[in-house]
Structure prediction request, 229 residues.
Amino acid sequence: SQQGEEDPQALSIQEGENATMNCSYKTSINNLQWYRQNSGRGLVHLILIRSNEREKHSGRLRVTLDTSKKSSSLLITASRAADTASYFCATDAGSNFGNEKLTFGTGTRLTIIP
Amino acid sequence: DAGVIQSPRHEVTEMGQEVTLRCKPISGHNSLFWYRQTMMRGLELLIYFNNNVPIDDSGMPEDRFSAKMPNASFSTLKIQPSEPRDSAVYFCASSLALTNRDTQYFGPGTRLTVL
Prediction:
């Protein structure tokens, strides 16, 4: 089963609005990452947040992490048509240093309406 | 930087045929990952290598699947014999893997269709 589950599965908003996607996971982690996938392309890393961090910003992206609830959210502010893509959270196994294995969630399909 | 290179980009084959997918990781990266993506199952990790050594192949679905990494710049994923349910997009990714906080860089994928 997927370690991460994104919510909602699909989201459509008007250009300029903010988009919020959520991710829940099941086991302890060392860090959580968000990736974007444009249609027909590979995944692209967006941002990483460590288990001891609660919030992180990168440009128009804001990520929060609540380890007590085993959940994370990705906020995209002032959305643009180019933000149309699928967004995935990915968690490590929470194991010892050096374990590179990631488990990806099911993804949120974001559509920005011009 | 050319990024992760995968070939072919598209493959159409008939059931029972052997399929070989190829990947060239980013130069200097020492971890390589093979994923499969389908609508039904999402993105699944099949196998990953560190310094050319397979570390975790628990995601390889059956003995029909095999992967090799003969050197730091090349890996193959082979399916023999192929079946229609193997139809998916197969991604290769690489990372520096100095810590477990490293970003994975994905290739463009190979879209496999088994008829």
In short: The two ends of chain A are 36 Å apart (CA to CA). Chain A touches chain B at residues 2, 30-31, 33, 40-45, 48, 50, 88, 92, 95, 97-107 (CB under 8 Å).
